[in-house]
Amino acid sequence: MSAIKPMKPLINRRTMIGMLGGVTATLALPNIVSGKKTPKRHIITLSFDDGFKKSSLLTASIYEKYKLSACINVIATGHLSNFKSPDDYQVTEKGDFGLWNELKARGHEVMPHGYKHANKTTIPLRDAQDLVSRCLDFFSRNLKGFEPEKAIFNMPYNASTPELEEWLATQVLAFRTGGVAINEMPQKKTKKLTCGAFGPGSTEEHLEQQIKNLLALPQGWLIYNTHGLDGEGWGPMRSTFLDRLLDRLMAIESVAVLPAGKVLEGI
Hints:
Layout: H1 23-26, E1 42-50, H2 53-65, E2 71-74, H3 97-105, E3 109-112, H4 125-142, E4 152-154, H5 162-168, E5 174-178, E6 182-183, E7 192-195, H6 204-215, E8 220-226, H7 239-250, E9 255-257, H8 260-265
Parallel strand pairs: 1-2, 1-8, 1-9, 2-3, 4-5, 5-7
Antiparallel strand pairs: 6-8
């Protein structure tokens, strides 16, 4: 494996119900708290952003193969005809809330990734708060069972400010932003989640290194921000790579592969 290239700043990155009806019932939350019968010391959350239709369907299918729940974070208005792509990596087709409700019914986690994917470090605080509120309202009206107080808000571009974070902590269960990839094991008071990422090229080598770093620790929670599959979006991975990766991770006794919301629910 060649040397890992330096990670480019995130600020520059330009994302059968009948046949699978039994999947939801089989998605179980492994014990992740020390002291239970089968504690999981290493949690891995692959956070798929932007809501690309093709990639989201394929991601869900691969996760279902291993009876896992995918972590999919979508732009509230990304599917609308008047959505203006904020960068070159957003131009492919987004899923709509018909799809997001279907995937949620199949057991996957669907969380907000902004109203229009705006970088909230470049606008006034009041405008940033308004966009977050509009996003949460849109989800409340269109995603069945959505409740802001149980949601993880995934910052576009992994970009936030201390002032916005302080306010956001009062609006949602938790939020994800840029920072270290490996978080401490969660507690009931956990609000801020940080993640690693790599792009715009293939994220595979960098992700492998982050997993290696996690497994070298006694415990920890790796949150890794990825996007599409097979060339779609910023920092994509191959679908075959994701399939093989999940297969390997499922064989490691200490590892739980979980979406962020389910991790926090399990505390």
